[in-house]
Design a protein that fits this description.
The protein is an alpha+beta fold and 542 residues long. Helix content is 31%, strand content 38%. The two termini are 54 Å apart. This is Phospholipid transfer protein.
Length: 542
């Protein structure tokens, strides 16, 4: 395309590499005087050169534009390791056994010489599939294999040979059952993880039936014929059953993973995948948007300028990596929602603090109307800038800047402002993972106030810093922690929870190593959503 552009941009008849002809002595020949083209031709040539320059600039920047467009930084990551896959294999094997137990083979009948037969009520009585393996395969695949398994069947027989008629049941066994499946995982249009492709190959090594009674020899003669047909029919049923289990039933389980749902009445969270899973022989990594948004304006979100979280460990079943952006976008969204404010009035204002405030602003109070002098105090606290989060190896902190206004609140009269001050606070934050809920518990560490009106008043406010800090610790922080205690659900399917969590802090992000356990079986969750009774859970709060 660049060559075509260069050709297009070269004036007709011009050769950029050509020089003037030379004479026999090596000097240049005489050059003809240039002829000035008409004005309209000069205008067209000028416009053409502008277009060419724009095209060349675009072509030069195209690789960088493509890289920038593809470089979406995740705010949240999940890594599943081979140890976690072993746990999934155990639960998945039980699910596969339950599905294969539901294999149905239609009744069939026919004749072989003088023998007439009718086979009905075929059902699976026992499965032995313990020699199984579930492993990662690069290029977005999971491989699930069952080797040397066995399936026991029981069916009803009706046989007619000349004048002999027999009816009863026969037990058969399929030995050397081998099932090889591959599941391709990918991101669907909604950003949810899905099984997008399922391949299956099943084979049965041998099948035999046990006969007894007076017609045993006759049955043995027919045994090969019957078991061969039964083997073919059974083999034809295995892969369709597993295909339905993967593409329909397991995908219904993945539908329970939150993608873009509300957290509460004010904000929501976006857990959509940014790309297809990255699978190695030992791990599977999932990159999520990890972004909160204000429900009133979902397009007004904080840009992600934080460092990308990194997971290097493989010792635990699963690892979570959470960026500073994850928390910053939550704080920004709550700020956009206008809910980071609080009023403290009447009996909620500690008496000691009320006395100290009245003494501090005594000069202003005595100059007021006597009808409002004895009015109760009211404190109005409002965050004035979006709070920010900082994660370091030593821990996590949140910086908050707020405005604290102090009023007299006379009954049935307008508020009377005594002071307006700026409060700067730093909160230490402890991240806790319980089941599927990511919780944050905060504690006030640093606190400073200064007046918005004068430096002299800032000096007068110094005695208030200790009591106001105590007020925040005893009154406001418990309210905040009660709200954050509910937590935010991690994008994990229903029925799976975390346990034995360990949080490690890094520069710009934190990681959580944990083990998994099934609080509900796959069968229980799948049965819950097999027949739709309403939409899947919409709230991501645990």
């Amino acid at each position: 395309m660049r060559a075509a552009t260069l050709l297009f941009c070269t004036p007709r008849g011009a050769n950029p590499g050509a020089t003037a002809p030379r004479g026999q002595d090596g000097t240049r020949g005489e050059e003809r005087p240039e002829q000035t083209p008409p004005r309209d031709q000069r205008s067209r040539a000028s416009a053409t050169m502008v277009l060419c320059n724009s095209l060349l600039l675009f072509l030069l920047l195209l690789p960088f534009l493509g890289t920038a467009a593809a470089a979406a930084t995740p705010g949240f990551k999940i890594r599943m390791t081979a140890k976690g896959l072993d746990l999934v294999k155990q639960e998945g094997l039980r699910f596969v056994e339950q599905e294969l137990e539901n294999i149905t083979i239609a009744d069939f009948h026919g004749k072989e010489g003088q023998f007439h037969y009718n086979i009905s009520k075929v059902r699976v009585t026992h499965l032995h599939l313990s020699a199984s393996d579930l492993r990662f395969e690069p290029k977005q695949h999971l491989a699930f294999n069952i080797n040397n398994g066995s399936i026991s069947l029981r069916f009803r027989r009706q046989l007619l040979y000349w004048f002999f008629y027999d009816i009863g049941s026969i037990n058969t066994s399929a030995e050397g059952v081998h099932i090889h499946t591959q599941l391709e995982l990918s991101k669907d249009n909604s950003g949810r993880l899905k099984i997008s492709n399922f391949s299956c190959n099943a084979s049965i090594g041998r099948m035999h039936a046990g006969f007894s009674g007076t017609l045993r020899k006759v049955y043995e003669f027919l045994g090969t014929f019957l078991t061969t047909g039964m083997r073919y029919l059974l083999n034809q049923q295995i892969c369709p059953v597993l295909n339905h289990a993967g593409l329909v039933l397991i995908n219904s389980l993945l539908d329970t993973v939150p993608v873009r749902n509300p957290v509460d009445d004010h904000i929501g969270i976006d857990y959509s995948l940014l790309k297809n899973p990255v699978v190695t022989s030992d791990t599977m990594d999932l990159d999520f948007e990890g972004k909160f948004f204000y429900l009133g304006d979902e397009n007004k979100t904080l840009p992600n300028l934080a460092v990308e979280p990194v997971v290097l460990e493989t010792e635990r079943m699963v690892y979570l990596a959470v960026s500073e952006y994850f928390f910053d976008s939550a704080l920004f969204s709550y700020f956009q929602a206008g809910v980071l404010s609080m009023e403290i009035a009447d009996e909620k204002v500690p008496k000691d603090l009320e006395v100290l405030l009245r003494a501090t602003f005594f000069g202003s109070i005595v100059m007021m109307n006597p009808s409002v002098v004895d009015a109760p105090l009211m404190l109005r606290l409002r965050v004035s800038l979006p709070p920010s989060c900082a994660i370091k190896a030593s821990g996590m902190s949140i910086s908050v800047t707020a405005t604290l206004n102090i009023f007299l609140a006379p009954v049935d009269q307008p508020l009377v402002q005594l002071s307006s001050m700026t409060m700067e606070a730093r909160l230490s934050a402890k991240v806790i993972l319980r089941k599927k809920a990511l919780q944050v518990l905060m504690d006030l560490r640093r606190f400073r106030i200064y007046s918005n009106q004068s430096a002299l008043e800032s000096l007068a406010l110094i005695p208030l810093q200790g009591p106001l800090k105590t007020l925040l610790q005893l009154t406001i922080m418990p309210i905040i922690n009660e709200r954050t205690k509910k937590g935010v659900q991690i994008p994990l399917p229903e029925g799976m929870d975390f346990m034995k969590e360990v949080v490690t802090y890094h520069k710009g992000y934190l990681t959580i190593g944990a083990d998994l356990h099934f609080s509900k079986g796959l069968r229980e969750v799948v049965e819950k959503y097999r027949t739709p009774q309403g939409p899947p859970p919409t709230s991501v709060a645990a």
